[in-house]
Amino acid sequence: MSSNSYAKRSQMAPAARAVRAYAAPINRITGSIAAFDPASQGQFDLDSPPAPWIDLGWVENFQRTAATKVDALRTGPAANITIQYRMTPEARVEFDLLSWGKLQLALSGGTQQMNVLAEQPGLPPQPSGGMALPASPVQTGSTYTQIVLTSDQLADYNVGDIVAVDVDYSGQTGYLGSGAPGAYIASPLNGQTYVDYVRRITFNVSRVCAVTSSYLQLAEPLIAQPAAGMGVQKVVAFLDREGSSFFQEWSGLFIVGPDSGGRACFYYPRLQPAAGASETRQEFAAPLFSHRLHVGLRALPTTDSNDNETVLCYRSYFPAPNAAV
C-alpha cells in the first residue's frame, strides 16, 4: 500500500459553514493577556470554550487584512535590493456578528458599554438611565454561577432578570470593572449618585435562571467571582454612546470549524476598535430584515516569549486525520 494512501490532499483545505468567534478579557492594569495555546487548547469544544474565552457566536464576512509595510534596502550603482525588512506593523480584522449581546455590542461599538440599571420611579428621565434601585449586598458563599442573598433581597428578583454584580463606586480612578475593564476614570467622580457607577459599566453580568431560598442561580458563569462587598442590580438594557473616549481592548480568537476535518485558528492577543458603531442590513422576505453588528478591529503588538519577536496575530492549522502535511 502506498504511503500516499494515508496522505489525502483533499483533506488539506479547511472548509466550514461559518467562522466562530471568541473573546477574552485583558487586564489593562497589569497588561496580562489570555494566551491561546494551540498545543493544549486548539481542539476545544466550540460550544464549551475553556476559560477565559467567551463565545461570541458565529460570524459572517470574516476578513483579515495584513497592512504591515515591506520596504527594501538598495545598494550599489544599480540600486539592487540587498535586503527586505518590515516596518509599521499593522493588521486588521472585520466581521459581522449574527447575534447581539453585551460583549458583541462592546466590540462593535468600540467605546464604553453601559448597563441600563432598573431605576427608581418618578425621577426625570436620563439618556443612560436615572437613579437606580438600591443594590442587593452579595453574601459569603457566592460562586460564579450562584449569588447568595438574604431572603428579603431574593424576593426582588425573578427568573429571566439580567443582573450586574460588582463593587460600589467610592472615588476609584483608573480602569474599573471586575473581570474585564469597562471604563477608565482619570479623576474621581464625586457624589452619592455615582455609587452604582461600576455596576453601570461592568461586564460581570448574567441572566437569572432560577431563584432558590438562598441564592440566585445564573444561566451563564460570571467572569469575576462575586464576593462580599459587591452588590447586585437588575439590568434592563445595554447601551453605548457614540463619541465617548474609552477604547475597548480584548483578545480575539476566530476558528474555521472542522467541517472538513481540519481546523484553522486565528489568535489576536490584543484587539482594539478601528471603527465606530455600525450595523449591516440583511434582507429576508419583505418586509423582514435583520441588523447585524459590524465589527472593525485593529491588532496591537505583543512580544512572543519564545524568541522576543513582535507579533500581531498567530495562525495555526490542525490537519484532519490522514491528511497530507
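(the above was protein one; protein two follows)
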Amino acid sequence: MIIKDNGVIGVVGLGMMGASIVSALLINGQKVIALAPIESDLDKSAKERIKKSLNECRTQGITADDPEELYNNVTFTSSFDDLKFCWIIMESVSENLEIKKRVLEKIEKAVDDSVIITSNTSAIPISTLQGYLKVPERFFGMHWAEPAYTTRFLEIVCGDKSPTKIGKELHQIATAWGKEPTLVLKDIQGFITNRLMYSLYREAFYLVENGYATIDDVDRACKNDAGHWLTFCGPFRYMDLTGLQAYHAVMKNLFKDLSTGTEVPKLIRDIAESGGNGVSNGKGFYSYTPEESKAWELAFEKFAFDVNRLSTKYLEETDSITSGTSKD
C-alpha cells in the first residue's frame, strides 16, 4: 500500500474536535470533505466554528492566507459516498465503540481498499477498531488535541495489523502539516499522552478526596510548576536539565505512596452523573455563569495562540542546539 497524499482529506464528525481538525488541515493547504454522519447535525455551528477559527488564525499570524479562500477548500456533506475521492479519512465521532463501529463500516463501504482510514479516538485501542474493518492494515490512530490548529501535537498510532512503514509515512506527512507528531509503534490503551495525563488526574483526585488540598490549590500547583516548563520540554529532558540524581532519590520513596486507584473518583462521578459538563453548561469542578464561561473560553483560545508562538520560537532554538538522541 502506497500513500498518495495529493488528494482530498475526509473528516467524519463535526463536533468541536472535528471542526478543529478541519481548520488545522485548511490552514495547511489541504482540501477537505467534512461529513456529518447524522444529517441533522449539519447545521451552522460547525461551519461558524471553522470560519471563526480561520479568521483568528489569520489575525494571530498562524496563517497569512485569506480565511475566505481557505474556507472555500472545504465541502460539507452528510453522504458517505462523497468520501470516494479522498486519500485519507479521519473519523472523529463520539467516543463510543458502537457508534465508531457503525461509522467505520460506512466509511469502508464508500471508499477504495487503498484509502487510509484513521480514528481520533483517545481511549479505544486501535487494534480493537481494526477488528471491524475488512482491510485492517490500512487503519491507524490519529489522535489530535484541541485546538488542533494551534497545537503541534498529533499522535499516530499503529494497531496490531498496522504496517510500521505506513505509520512512518503518516508521521512525515503530519510533519508537513506543521505538527511535531509522535509515532506509537505498539498499540496500548490511552497511547502516550493520555496515559501520562490520566496518571496526573488520578493523583489530583486522590489529593482532593483525601483532604490534602483543595481543587483550586491542585490546579494552581500544576499551573505554576509543570505548566511552567512542559511546553518547553518533556519529562525526560526536564530531569536532565534539573539534575536527575534528585529524581532517582525521590522515586525510591514516593512511588510506593502514589495512588493506584482503579475506580472512577467519586468527585467526578457525582458531577458527571448529575449532568455537569464544565464550562459548556456551567457545572463542573467550578461553577460558571454564562458570562464567565464565555470569558474562560476566550482566554483559553488566546492562551493557545500565545503558547503556539512561544513554543515555536523555542522549538527552532533547541533544534539548532543538538540532534542528540535518547538512551534506549
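Reviewer note on protein two: The longest helix spans residues 290-319.
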